[in-house]
Amino acid sequence: MPLTDSAIKTAKPKEKPYKLSDAHGLYLEVSPTGSKLWRLKYRVAGKEKKLAIGAYPIIGLQQARQRRDEARQQLADGVDPSEQRKAAKQAQQAEGLTFEILARQWHAYRAPRWAQSIADKAMAYLESDLLPALGHRPAKAITRPELVALIRKIEDRGAHNVAKKTRQWLSQIFRFGLAQGSVEANPATDLDVIAAHAPATRHHPHVTFAELPELLGKIESAKVNALTRCAIRLLVLTAVRPGELRAAPWAEFDLDAATWTIPKERMKARRAHVVPLPRQAVATLRQLQEITGAYDLAFAGRNETARPMSENTINKALADAGYKGRQTGHGFRHLLSTELNGRGYNRDWIERQLAHGDADEIRDTYNHATYLEQRREMMQAWADSIDALCAGANVVSIKRKA
User: Fold this and answer.
1) Looking at residue 400, what is its pLDDT?
2) What single string gives the DSSP state of each residue in 57-77?
3) What is the DSSP letter of 223?
4) What is the pLDDT of residues 375-394, one digit of tens each?
5) What is the rounded CA–CA span in Å between residue 252 and residue 316?
6) CATH code of the domain occupying 209-390
7) Residue 83 confidence (pLDDT)
8) Residue 360 pLDDT
9) Sign of torsion over alpha carbons 292, 280, 336, 276
10) Three-state DSSP class for 162?
11) Which residues are catalytic?
12) What topology does CATH give the domain 99-194?
């Protein structure tokens, strides 16, 4: 028998949920709490499914029957009403999805696969250039001309490397949106085709080995924070990346064993890196320990000790000392590579000290050697040669055999 309004109104809750059937699969489910929910039972491809119609009394008997009939018409047309509702809900969510939400979803997905320094840099690009311009816009509504205009503004201020990275991030964000169904197109494809021509730049410039004593002397005599001075000395003595040094916690250093172990999570190549510390580096770290030893980070920030020293600090100190365009923090890696290769050291030792992967992917996969002891001897000789040069001695480039 079809349901009546009076039967629905007088239905009382029981210990367990029970049903009051109407017709053609429509029924009212009465829960122990007294709530009454309309549901439609139907079959698709031989599989039983249920569709929520709404709650009584908000949805009355006649309205529930009307919704049932609409669902049955969809079934007759070959449409599953449950899937149709799910698709409509997703479409509605996608319409309201802003670029900021999509960008942060992308970053959260990618960050675990990156070194922390890369994740931080990507977020910095988002927050400095992309979100202020696009964050409030619906992701689906963003057009290619908008992105071209944004990139042009970045190029116009001379930040060509930032523009290049921004193009990459934009394309990845919209590809992520495409994959999860949040957008229907990627307006950031082929933006490199109309990229402005960047002036020739000398990447990671560095002085010659012979000029190193003058540079170190100027840094020592300049009005530079003690942490910055220590950081520059350690970059010279270890050739690690500036980001790896700035974010280093004290827990990674074993000064008694003269070893610094950087976990894979902090490395660009996602491979743990053991850095042998020459005596001069250990002495510098012990000096630094007197300043920041009570903090987690060796190069704790001046205003917020839980955060590392700013990434611009080292390059600014070098620029202020007269080395703008001549030396960067990263450039000390190139200086070491140039000099030690010139002295005839084994290329594998140098590349492992720089934490580079092998260009030959197969060789890199099977070469797990760290050459720690060989590198320890090489880096101690490197540090001693700097001391000798600074003391005014003539340093002879001794050829080393593998």
Assistant:
1) 46
2) TTS-HHHHHHHHHHHHHHHHT
3) S
4) 999 999 999 999 999 987 54
5) 26
6) 1.10.443.10
7) 83
8) 43
9) negative
10) helix
11) 241, 268, 330, 333, 356, 366
12) DNA polymerase; domain 1 (1.10.150)
- Within 10 A of 247 (CB to CB), how many other CB atoms are there? 21
Pairwise CA distance, residues 5 & 60, whole Å:
8
Q: In what order do the strands lie in the sheet with 47-56?
A: 18-21, 26-30, 36-44, 47-56
| pLDDT score of 118 | 81
Positions of the chain with pLDDT lower than 70, given as ranges: 88-96, 198-203, 357-369, 393-402
Length of the chain, in residues? 402
Q: What's the Rg (C-alpha) of the chain?
A: 32
pLDDT at 401: 42
* pLDDT, tens digit (0-9, with 9 covering 90-100), for 325-350: 899 999 999 999 999 999 999 999 99
Separation between Cα atoms, residue 237 and residue 283, nearest integer Å? 11
**What does pTM read for this prediction?**
0.55
Q: Which residue blocks in 81-208 are alpha helix, DSSP H?
A: 81-95, 99-110, 116-125, 131-134, 144-156, 160-179
* pLDDT for the residue numbered 87: 73
Burial environment of residue 356 by CB neighbours within 10 A (0 to 12, 13 to 18, 19 or more): middle
pLDDT of residue 367: 44
- Give the number of other Cβ atoms within 10 Å of residue 229's Cβ: 18
Residue 92: per-residue pLDDT: 55
Residues carrying CATH 3.30.160.390, the chain: 5-94
CATH of domain 5-94: 3.30.160.390
> Which structure tokens are listed for 100?
């900021």
Quick one: tokens of 230? 């220590």
Beta-carbon contacts of 369 under 8 Å, excluding residues fewer than 6 positions away, are 348, 352
